[in-house]
Structures are given as structure tokens and as C-alpha cells.
# Entry
Amino acid sequence: MDQKEIDQIVEKYAGEEGVLIQLLLDVQKELNWVPKEAIKRISERLQVPLSQIYRVASFYKSMSLRPRGRHLVNVCLGTACQVRDGPRVMDRVSQVLGINPGETTPDMKFTLERVNCLGCCALGPTVKIDEDYYGKIAPAKVEEILEGYD
# Structure
């Protein structure tokens, strides 16, 4: 993303107050992460200190300051999922992708994250890939599910 693209995102919110979070979310959506160059440009354009932008970007789990894969895989390990084989599901996802939680595959296809709750405890163990939810997942089904993502 170059400065022109960042400027276009900033221009969408010209004259509005309290747009920092939305700007960062828009950059995140475009790139799957918020690079340092984008933060610097937003700081210049909005006249907001870099430290404030970093504080916001690092607070929200939906934003990443490191490159993420095209598909974000969230494995729930909250209490309900934990007692219903969530750790085995996480182990299987990790094994299939060849990465640990918090890492991204070398081809930038998947990023794996552990979450404490996806809000669908009755369906545990639960995996969320991008905006798709999979409930009552058996470790044996993980590979089949992941194969459905290009």
C-alpha cells in the first residue's frame, strides 16, 4: 500500500472526528495488517502522535502490526471448548498448517491464533476461519476444512 492509497482511506473520513479506529480497520482490511508506513502517514495526515496510533492498533485484536495470512484461523480454547477437545483441535490445526499459534504460514495463506471465546460455547470446540464458524469440530475434520480455503 503506497501513500496514495492511505491518503484515499483518510480522505473517506475528511472532516469527521474520532475516525482513527476506522482508518486502521480499513488499512487492516486492505493489507491484513497495519504496516509502520501506514501508521506514519496516518499520523502525518491526522496530526495524531505515533504513540497514540500504536496504542490503538496494538490494543485491538482485530488489528495486527505484523503481516497476517490471507485467512485468519481462530481456535477457541475457552472453558467450554477446552473441555470438549479444543486443545486437540488446536494441536491438529497447528500440525496441518505447520505453525504454532501466533504464527503465519510461509506462503502467507494462514495465520493461526488462539482465542479465549468465540461466543458460541454450545457448539464447542469451535474454529473460526475469516468469517466462517465451525462448531463441534473433531480433530479429524480439521484438514478437510482447511483444504476449502485457497
